[in-house]
Write a structure and sequence with these properties.
This protein has 279 residues and is α/β, with parallel strands linked by helices. It folds into 2 domains: 192 residues, 3-Layer(aba) Sandwich (Cytidine Deaminase, domain 2); 66 residues, no CATH class. 45% of the residues lie in helices and 15% in strands. The strands form 2 sheets. The chain has a 6-stranded mixed sheet, with helices on both faces. Strand 4, helix 3 and strand 5 form a beta-alpha-beta unit. Helix 3 packs parallel to helix 4. The chain is globular and about 75 Å long. The N and C termini lie far apart (97 Å). The C terminus is likely disordered.
């Protein structure tokens, strides 16, 4: 069984799995669960991945779930993971399902090296965790010292290996580039969505046939004492500056015409235009 509860990690295993200048063919995850504002761990331990079966993260989360249920853990708690590799996309999805139903539990991940940062699927998995509020950091010398002190032996001191800081800096830069890339994509997506909203809003505010009819009714109900426009020598009170023979509106009703007002009779000039069009 590659799961060890409340057991110190052998120093040799620490050196083999957390030296960030090497790439071991297995994953080691150390964990601790503690209540916020408390220095005492509720439970702790570590796990290796079970080849062709379960990942180390799955083994730990399965056991944490059992522990929470059996001990009726309540209140805000922090689950800290020291990992030899960052979570893969499958483990990221598993962590998401684990945290989704536990708003009072936060997670702090510190990883020694990246797990295939060059693949988009792995990048998306990490960004998914970040969007959930998971703290993800590439380990530096201070983190290695803390891990050694807490999970190997409190009297052990870290002897930095050659290239530790340089590789830590590179890993941190690579992770930061992933955040920037996805942030840029999110901003572009937000800009596109805003543009769509504006376009739809403008489309909804355009004057449609039903609005044109309303506008025509409103214009017809206005006072006829508007500026006169002379067409073919006739005085037409019902002709507005913006209204011509191309205005597509519903016919005016008889009630809106005054039989005694010669200016509102059919316009000869307008008829001549229609005759011209018929030719």
């Amino acid at each position: 069984m590659p799961f060890f509860l409340k057991t110190l990690l052998p120093e040799k295993d620490f050196e083999e799995n957390f030296n960030n200048t090497f790439q071991p063919h297995k994953t080691l995850v150390l964990f601790s669960l503690k209540k916020d504002k408390s220095s005492l761990w509720k439970t702790w331990g570590y796990a290796y991945n079970n080849p062709n079966n379960e990942h180390a993260e799955h083994l730990i989360l399965d056991n944490i779930e059992i522990y929470i249920q059996e001990n009726q853990i309540k209140g805000r708690h922090t689950l800290t993971l020291f990992m030899s590799y960052t979570p893969c996309r499958k483990c990221s999805a598993r962590i998401k399902s684990f945290l989704t139903s536990r708003n009072d539990l936060c997670m702090d991940i510190k990883a020694s090296r990246p797990y295939f940062f060059e693949y988009k699927s792995e990048q998306k998995g990490l960004y998914l965790l970040k969007s959930l509020g998971v703290s993800i950091k590439m380990m530096d010398q201070f983190d290695y010292e803390q891990c050694l002190h807490e999970f190997v032996h409190p009297s052990k001191k870290l002897t930095p290996w050659l290239g530790l800081e340089e590789q830590s800096k590179k890993n941190a830069d690579d992770l930061e580039n992933i955040w920037k890339q996805f942030l840029s994509q999110e901003e572009e997506k937000e800009t596109e969505e805003n543009a769509k909203i504006i376009k739809i809003s403008n489309h909804d505010n355009m004057i449609g046939p039903q609005n044109i009819s309303v506008c025509t009714e409103q214009l017809g109900a206005q006072d006829v004492s508007r500026p006169h426009i002379i067409l073919d020598g006739q005085d037409h009170h019902d002709q507005s500056p913006t209204k011509d023979d191309t205005w597509l509106s519903t016919p005016e009703t008889p009630q809106k015409r005054k039989s005694t007002d010669r200016a509102t009779e059919p316009v000869p000039g307008a008829k001549r235009k229609l005759d011209f069009l018929e030719k």
